[in-house]
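Weekly sync, protein design subgroup
Attendees: M.S., D.O., the rotation student, P.L. (late)

Item 1: inverse folding check
M.S. brought a backbone from last month's batch and wanted to see whether the design step gives back something sensible before we order anything. D.O. pointed out we never logged the input encoding, so this time it goes straight into the notes. Structure tokens as presented (460 positions):
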């Protein structure tokens, strides 16, 4: 048996050996290891992943929402190789490097008005931590300090990452309640969900209703609130919850009126995912702090950026002895290899007119969803650009969910994976979120596999 080949006698361990080590040694996130079935990817071509047995799988969720232009894009590959000939890493604490400076200028140029300073960290969660600490420190030391402003507002079912600060903001009970004793208190307003509306609230009234809830909270608590943190347009990990049009714009108006900073978390929505470069653009919103990560490097390397406007940034300027510096920094923040990948990613957006090319793909997904929406256990199909959630329910009339223990979403995705399309669900929501580089033909394959998986998982 090939698994008896040891690494000492072979340049690369055989696939059975790798799968055994993967099952026994590697501890995977959000995965029950006792029942884990190894899926070990070895390489990729474009939007297709290839595992150690040579099995080909279309990457239907962008390697967890981060791949943008496909895998092994020559432009991005070459940018990283070129950077290796200069330097792989140097620190951003008190010094800089040419590639990271260039990326910073590019980011300021493409993000919403007023965001003119960039702070780097390693992943989305730490980018959110940076925004939280900036907002907190801001009120302690701005021109007219407001030391009572120490709390944050977050949305119901929010997801901002898995570190303790970002979990405190999080509102997904399944992930977050266990850690309750470690978390700080957050003021929460209901998730602006247009599928599961509260009793008596119509679609037309949804925006007014959710904004009303927020205004009540702000009117009462604004003296205590440092910032509000939102995922714009779509709450991804919550199950692709879609906000009513106008919600984000009115959140911006209210936070301005009540003098509360607005932090927008575009870790999932940024870099074209919702059909525009940033989701904020669709509502004409410029936040005080913006977090980006996942798609920033095209899905190649770990990097996040937290962008701040002058109002926030200027509060951190002063004499050395004033102790107004931002007291935070990560060893690998601003890593030049990641920055090179990010610059190349932005270049590809321009050269391949990626955003302009999306409307045909978005339309194609929509066509498939019209059909899938009519399946007996599909309660809702939700799409914003290239972000899609298909919610499976027990009863479409009452929206009664399937028992989570039946794992309908996982079964649908497992079926799709066996048919050549790798998908990963969020509970009973089947997620489709392919790389922006996906072809129309690949979209057809993904949507057909998702449909067949849903039929298989809901017929019993
Ligand atoms: C994925 C995600 C994060 C966390 O990013 P990591 O890189 O996984 O730490 C934060 N916010 C949102 C909206 C996300 O989707």
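Designed sequence read out in the meeting:
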């Amino acid at each position: 048996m090939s698994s008896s080949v040891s690494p000492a006698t072979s340049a690369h361990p055989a696939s059975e050996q790798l799968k055994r080590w993967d099952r026994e040694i590697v501890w995977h996130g959000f995965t029950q290891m006792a029942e884990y079935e190894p899926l070990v990817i070895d390489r990729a071509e474009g939007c297709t992943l290839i595992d150690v047995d040579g099995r080909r799988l279309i990457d239907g969720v962008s390697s967890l929402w981060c791949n943008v232009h496909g895998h092994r894009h020559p432009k991005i590959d070459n940018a990283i190789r070129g950077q290796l000939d200069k330097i792989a890493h140097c620190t951003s604490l008190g010094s800089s490097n040419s590639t990271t400076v260039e990326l910073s200028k590019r980011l300021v140029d493409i993000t919403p008005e007023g965001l003119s300073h960039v702070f780097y960290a390693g992943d989305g969660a730490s980018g959110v931590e940076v925004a939280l600490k900036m907002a907190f420190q801001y009120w302690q030391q701005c021109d007219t300090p407001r030391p009572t402003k120490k709390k944050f507002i977050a949305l119901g079912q929010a997801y901002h990452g898995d570190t303790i600060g970002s979990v405190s903001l999080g509102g997904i009970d399944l992930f977050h309640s266990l850690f309750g004793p470690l978390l700080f208190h957050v003021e929460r307003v209901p998730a602006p969900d247009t599928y599961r509306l509260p009793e008596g609230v119509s679609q037309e009234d949804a925006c007014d209703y959710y904004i009303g809830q927020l205004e009540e909270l702000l009117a009462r608590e604004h003296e205590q609130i440092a910032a509000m943190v939102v995922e714009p347009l779509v709450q991804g990990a919550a199950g692709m919850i879609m906000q009513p049009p106008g919600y984000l714009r009115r959140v911006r108006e209210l936070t301005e009126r009540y003098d509360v900073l607005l932090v927008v978390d575009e870790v999932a929505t940024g870099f074209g995912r919702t059909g525009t470069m940033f989701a904020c653009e669709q509502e004409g919103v410029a936040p005080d702090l913006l977090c980006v990560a996942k798609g920033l490097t095209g899905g190649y390397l770990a990097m996040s950026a937290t962008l701040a406007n002058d109002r926030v940034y200027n509060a951190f300027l002063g004499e050395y002895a004033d102790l107004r510096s931002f007291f935070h920094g990560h060893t690998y923040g601003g890593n030049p290899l990641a920055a090179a990948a990010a610059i190349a990613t932005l270049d590809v957006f321009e050269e391949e007119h990626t955003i302009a090319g999306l409307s045909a793909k978005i339309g194609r997904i929509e066509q498939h969803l019209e059909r899938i929406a009519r399946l007996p256990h599909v309660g809702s199909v939700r799409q914003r650009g290239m972000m899609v959630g298909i919610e499976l329910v027990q009863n479409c009339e009452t929206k009664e969910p399937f028992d989570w223990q039946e794992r309908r979403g996982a079964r649908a995705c497992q079926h799709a994976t066996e048919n050549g399309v790798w998908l990963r669900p969020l509970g009973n929501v089947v997620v489709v979120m392919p790389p922006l580089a996906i072809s129309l033909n690949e979209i057809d394959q993904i949507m057909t596999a998702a449909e067949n998986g849903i039929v298989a998982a809901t017929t019993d």
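Discussion: The radius of gyration is 23 Å. The first helix runs from residue 15 to 24.
Action: P.L. to compare against the previous round before Friday.
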